[in-house]
């Protein structure tokens, strides 16, 4: 090869465009093309007669359709459904999503023509214009339809308000406050009681509730907490799922069962003390009916069994020996209990002294001594 000859430059070949790129460009422009399966796809039609089932990008919303959209939007019960479903009325249907994906739509409050999109539960919110580019009326930026008062049975509302302080769940505070706002009258803090004919003296006073009523309140509160937990903290969802339960009549019973004294119902005055806190004279007066209807031997056996069941076995043995052994006298035992009360306080109950000092025991000892 001579040095004067110029080097031959190879011809530059044109870059080949993949068929997928051409199909994508024609698809975006709406032109006719052949897809990768060899099927002929016709061009898109522009206007209200668009037959594109996948995107409907060029559909036109008329006045009649806009009124229909507003009517359906106002019929949505809750604000959350309005936020998620309102964009679906305005935005056209989307292609089927892949597995494990999610898209959430929400209309922007600042500009109703902009939709907020979040692709996952924890992902960030993105902004995009609504596809059909139509002017959305300002009625979409309205107050929630459930902002009005909620119709709840007044008896159920009053009972729920009275039971709110008994619950220990902190996350239900918003639920209780919503009920507090819906009540008309301020209920009394005391427990409701039945009619005066069926109520006793202790029911008219502000006494602590019995174990039975406390258990019933605990069961009701747990049921209320479970229903609120199932509703995921939404008052509208709670109303929809428990509408029959809320419409039922519900009255919390405030009746406290008292032991009848046999001397008639007590009138107004000082509250009755418990049996353990009462004086000896009061105890004898209350147990007068039992003493008159029960024999002496039965009372001794009952006292022995009760002391044994409570753990006072020494006291039960003393009662058994004194009542069943005629040779044993109760005088030395009483004197020893009075002289050494500190040593015998743990083993012998004080009720044994009262039993030994009873007039029936003294009369029996006199007979035996004779």
Automatic annotation (TrEMBL):
Residues 181-207 are annotated as: Disordered. It comes from the Eukaryota. This is Uncharacterized protein. It comes from Rhamnusium bicolor.
């Amino acid at each position: 090869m001579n040095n004067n000859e110029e080097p031959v430059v190879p011809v530059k070949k044109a870059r080949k465009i993949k068929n997928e790129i051409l199909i994508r460009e024609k698809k975006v422009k709406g032109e006719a093309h052949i897809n990768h399966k060899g099927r002929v796809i016709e061009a898109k039609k522009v206007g209200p007669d668009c037959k594109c089932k996948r995107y409907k990008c060029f559909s036109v919303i008329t006045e009649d359709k806009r009124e229909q959209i507003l009517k359906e939007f106002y019929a949505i019960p809750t604000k959350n459904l309005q936020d998620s479903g309102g964009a679906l009325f305005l935005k056209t249907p989307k292609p089927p999503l892949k597995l494990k994906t999610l898209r959430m739509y929400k209309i922007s409050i600042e500009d109703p023509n902009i939709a907020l999109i979040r692709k996952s539960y924890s992902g960030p919110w993105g902004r995009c214009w609504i596809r059909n580019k139509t002017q959305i009326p300002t009625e979409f930026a309205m107050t929630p339809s459930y902002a009005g008062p909620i119709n709840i049975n007044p008896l159920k509302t009053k009972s729920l308000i009275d039971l709110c302080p008994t619950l220990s769940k902190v996350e239900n505070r918003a639920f209780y406050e919503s009920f507090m706002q819906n009540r008309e009258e301020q209920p009394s803090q005391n427990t409701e009681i039945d009619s005066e004919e069926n109520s006793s003296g202790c029911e008219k006073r502000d006494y602590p509730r019995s174990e039975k009523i406390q258990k019933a309140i605990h069961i009701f509160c747990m049921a209320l907490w479970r229903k609120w937990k199932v509703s995921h903290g939404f008052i509208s969802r709670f109303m929809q799922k428990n509408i029959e339960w809320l419409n039922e009549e519900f009255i919390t019973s405030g009746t406290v069962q008292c032991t009848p004294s046999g001397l008639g119902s007590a009138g107004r005055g000082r509250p009755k003390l418990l049996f353990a806190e009462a004086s000896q004279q009061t105890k004898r007066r209350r147990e007068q009916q039992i003493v008159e209807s029960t024999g002496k031997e039965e009372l001794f056996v009952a006292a022995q069994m009760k002391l044994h069941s409570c753990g006072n076995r020494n006291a039960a043995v003393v009662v058994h020996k004194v009542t069943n052994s005629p040779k044993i006298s109760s005088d030395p035992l009483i004197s020893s209990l009075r002289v050494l009360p500190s040593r015998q306080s743990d083993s012998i109950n004080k009720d044994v002294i009262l039993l030994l000092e009873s007039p029936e025991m003294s009369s029996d000892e006199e007979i035996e001594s004779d």
